[in-house]
Design brief:
Blueprint (H helix, E strand, L loop, with lengths): L5 H12 L3 H7 L30 E3 L6 H13 L2 E5 L5 H15 L3 H4 L12 E5 L13 E6 L16 H24 L8 H8 L3 E7 L11 E4 L5 E6 L5 E4 L6 E3 L7 E5 L1 H6 L9 E3 L7 E8 L6 E2 L3 H4 L10 E2 H8 L16
Parallel strand pairs: 1-2
Antiparallel strand pairs: 2-10, 3-4, 4-5, 5-12, 6-11, 7-10, 7-12, 8-9, 8-11, 13-14
Bound molecules: 2-oxoglutaric acid (AKG) and fe (ii) ion (FE2).
Length: 356
Amino acid sequence: MPPRNPDSDKILDFVVNKGNGIKGLVDTGIESVPELYILSVEERLEASKVVPEESIPVIDVSDWDDPQVTESICQAASKWGFFQIINHGVPLEVLYAVKEAAHGFFGLPNEERNKYWIGNSPTDTVTLKTSFVPQVEAVLEWKDYLTFRYVAGDQDPSALWPPVCKDQVVEYMKRAEPVIRKLLEVLLKGLKVKEIDKAREFTLMANPIVNLNYYPRCPNPDLTAGVRPHSDISTITVLLQDDNGGLYVRATDDDSWIHVPPVDGALVINIGDILQIMSNDRYKSIEHRVVANGSKNRVSVPIFVNPGPDAVFGPLPEVLENGERPLYKEVLFSDYFKYFFSKKHEGKKTMDFAKI
Ligand SMILES: O=C(O)CCC(=O)C(=O)O
Ligand SMILES: [Fe+2]
């Protein structure tokens, strides 16, 4: 990494080492984006690259048994890798409450948030972080996030979670679980898997991670990244966004970007790398990125539906049954996870790790 200027070093120390996050920095009253957060021109999202006429499908899932619904889901997973669902059964109040809880947590005084900063937290099932991997990023991302890990078999992982948001996260997760199960059932049926048995369940969804993402108001969002282009490593991700917008997904031409408009009450679903690998590329784990907001604090709440750490995944036998060549090898999830977190967000590069 090239040497940084002394100002950037000071900011890095304040934001990362002292655990104040980008929220803490914005609270000091900065009026411009510091150099540490300024992307090279090539990395910025150029307005001309956004195609306003395109949009990802919005699917009404009030009847999961309707063949049209299941077909739309599998088609969207193959073509776009991204879709929104409405009438999914998670009550609106639960969605509002978890977004409010995110504002509640990040609205706490610095020293209260800092109790959960990575390294300080009373439990490794909840950690507060900033950017993505600030140790290896020359330019940081304009985002702090509180990560909740659900560990299989843990009686009550939430006992030491922050009181200001714990109940809302637990309730949201509880209500989202049946939706996750349904989505995976439909998507796996589309790959000729008849039933999700215990072993498959472990590989598909044993260790979900919930994040409360916080993108504080940014003096010049065009210069910086809320999140750089990346694909998720999950099987699927269920994302709740607020009404600010700012999420963009790679268009099918692989060059331009499509905005994901906020739809009240909807959940944004995307296919992650693992399901792309399991499907031997039938489903697509699409790159996406976030631009922070110039006037408001933005929150989002993704659930990354992940395998257990010692799960091994690769193209499914059902998919290869007709003699199709596997495009990926078998990979241990914890190895894939470590590789993802060893570098900055870099498009779909993590998938090279599993390619044959
Ligand atoms: O904030 C968002 O809308 C998306 C965040 C995201 O892509 C991620 O956390 O992986
Ligand atoms: Fe993502």
